[in-house]
Amino acid sequence: MTAKTDIEIARAALKRPIQEIGAELGIPAEALLPYGHDKAKVSADFIAGLSDRPSGKLILVTAINPTPAGEGKTTTTVGLGDGLARLGKKTAICIREASLGPCFGMKGGAAGGGYAQVVPMEDMNLHFTGDFHAITSAHNLLAAMVDNHIYWGNELEIDQRRVTWRRVMDMNDRALRDIVCSLGGVANGFPRETGFDITVASEVMAILCLATDLADLQRRLGDIIVGYTREREPVFARDLKADGAMTVLLKDAMQPNLVQTLENTPAFVHGGPFANIAHGCNSVIATTTALKLADYVVTEAGFGADLGAEKFMNIKCRKAGLSPAAVVIVATVKALKMNGGVAKEALKAEDVEAVKRGCANLGRHIENVRSFGVPAVVAINHFAGDTEAEIAAVESYVARHGSEAILCKHWADGGAGIEALAHRVVDLAGQDHHTFAPLYDDDEPLFHKIEVIAKRIYRADEVLADKKISDQLHAWEAAGYGHLPICMAKTQYSFSTDPNLRGAPEGHSVPVREVRLSAGAGFVVVICGEIMTMPGLPSRPAAEAIGLNDLGQVEGLF
C-alpha cells in the first residue's frame, strides 16, 4: 500500500468547527469572522482588549541552510505545537501564509507535511482569505497613483528617472523583472523603466507584518518613499494621498487568520514575507495576539538561521519588543549529507563521514543563535532512510557543541512523535538566566550594521560596496534613517552569497549590489550577490502536476 500524500492526509482530517478552536484560546464566537467552517479572522476589537494580559513563552523554529533534500521547518513547527498540546500545554502556532509563486514553482506549499500539517491545506496554499490579493492591490494602487500624478501635471515634481516604487504580483515571472511602462503614445503617460517584484517582497507586505493596528498601518503606509524630486527630496505615499485608500484595502487583511492543525491545535496563519529578500516572519499582530492567548507560542522564520532567525531577532523582536524563550534548529540527515558534499541522487546510501562534514553547517547555526543570548536545541527531522549510525553522528556532534539533538518523528506520527523535543523546549523556556539581545544597537552606522551581520553571522572577511552604496547609506543617515535595522537579501542556500558554497565557509566576501530604503516598514534592504526580488519558474514547475480530479478535488499540491 502506497503512503498517503500530504493532500490526502489533509483531506481526511477530522476538523473541528473554527468556533471551537477559538474557544480553546478563549476567543468568543462573536470575535471571529468566519470564512466557511474551518477558518476565520480574529476581530481587531477583540485583539485591542488583550493588551493588559501577560504574555506566554515564544519558541522560534529555524533551520540549517536549505537544500534540495528538504529540512521540514514548517512541519517541525506544526509538530512541536501538537507535541506541546499533548503535554497539556495551552499552545498556539504562528506561521506565514503561502505565496502562489513557490506553490506553483519549486518549493511547494507552506502548511507542513505528513501528519504535522495545518488545515485546510488547499485553501492555505491557494487564495486562503485573500490577504495576499489585498496586499498586491494596495501596492499596485500606489504605483498607479504615482504614474497618474505625473500624467496630470506632476505637482510634486517627481523625477521620472528616480521613481523607486515598482509593481508586484504573487507569482514567479522573470519576464516582468525589468520592463518599460506607459508605451503607446501620449494618452498612456510618459514611458519609463520599472519592473515587478513578487508580492512577498513588497514593502506593503512587510508593513502589514510589522504594524500593530490600523492607525500604525496607515502611518507606515504614508511613510513609504515612492521616489525623489530632481533636488533629491523624497516623495512619500502620503504626499500622493494614497495612504487612506491603501489602508481601506488592507482593513480585513490586517486581522489574523485562525485555523487548526490535524490534531486541532490552534494556528494563526498571517502574512508571508520571504526571508531571502524580505524579513521572513509572520505578522507581529498574530504573534502578539497568540502570546496573550496561549502559554506557549511556536513560530518559525524562513529559510536557514542565517536569514530568517537573524531577521527575527534583529528586526521583528527589536521592533515588537519580543524576546524568544528558546530556539529549535531543524536539521535532517539528508540535508547534512548534502552539506557534506553528497549529491542528491546519492543520498540514500549511508555515509556517516559526510554527515560529520555537513554538521559544520549545523554547528555554525548553533553558535549564531546562541550569540543572541537564547538557548538552542536541535530537532533531527526523521526520514525513513536515516541509519542509526548517521543519527548518532549528529547527536554526538551537537553534544560536543554543548547542546542536544533530539530525534523527531512528527511527520509520520504527529505530535506523539515529537514529545521528547516538546519536554526539552518546556525545560529551556523555563530557564530565566538567558538574556536576549540583538546583535547591534540602533545608533550604530548603517554600513557597520551590515558588516556585523556579514562577519558575525556569515563569517565573511569583508563587505564589498562601491562609493555609490556608501554615499546612499550616508545620505539616509543624514535624513534621519540611520537608526533603522538591516534586512539582508541574499541566497538562502549558503552562508556566503554563492548558492553552491555549502557547509560553513569562512573568509569570503559579501558584495552589495543595491540598497533600498523601506521607510514605512522601518528597515534598509541590502541586496547581495545575484539574489532576485522576482523569482523565475524552474524548468519543470510544480504547476504542471496540479489540477482537479474527477471528484473536483485539488490534486498535486504538496
From the N-terminal CA to the C-terminal CA, the straight-line distance is 20 Å
State the shape.
globular
Major beta-sheet overview: 12 strands, mixed
Poorly predicted regions: none
Number of helices: 19
| Helical amount | 25-40%
Total number of beta strands: 25
Proportion of β residues?
Answer: 15-25%
Detail the topology: elements first, then pairings:
Blueprint: H1 6-11, H2 18-24, E1 32-34, E2 40-42, H3 44-48, E3 57-63, H4 73-86, E4 91-95, H5 100-104, E5 112-113, E6 116-119, H6 121-125, H7 131-151, E7 158-163, E8 167-169, E9 179-181, E10 192-194, E11 196-198, H8 203-210, H9 214-222, E12 225-229, E13 234-236, H10 243-250, E14 257-261, E15 266-269, H11 284-293, E16 296-300, H12 305-320, E17 326-331, H13 333-339, H14 352-370, E18 376-381, H15 388-400, E19 405-408, H16 410-413, H17 419-429, H18 446-457, E20 462-464, H19 467-481, E21 486-489, E22 509-518, E23 523-528, E24 547-548, E25 554-555
List keywords for this structure.
558 residues; alpha/beta; Rossmann fold; Domain 2, N(10)-formyltetrahydrofolate synthetase; Formyltetrahydrofolate synthetase, domain 3; 3 domains; 12-stranded mixed beta sheet; 4-stranded mixed beta sheet; 25 strands; 19% strand
Describe the structure.
This protein folds into three domains: 6-129 and 253-429, Rossmann fold (3-Layer(aba) Sandwich); 132-247, 2-Layer Sandwich (Domain 2, N(10)-formyltetrahydrofolate synthetase); 446-528, Formyltetrahydrofolate synthetase, domain 3, CATH 3.10.410.10. The longest helix has 21 residues, at 131-151. It has 19 helices and 25 strands. Helices cover 35% and strands 19% of the residues. The model has no long low-confidence stretch (mean pLDDT 94). The strands form six sheets. Strands 1, 2, 3, 4, 5, 6, 14, 15, 16, 17, 18 and 19 form a twelve-stranded mixed sheet that branches. It has a four-stranded mixed sheet with strand order 20-22-23-21. A three-stranded antiparallel sheet has the order 7-12-13, covered by helices on one side. α14 runs parallel beside α15 (388-400). By secondary structure, it is of the alpha/beta class.
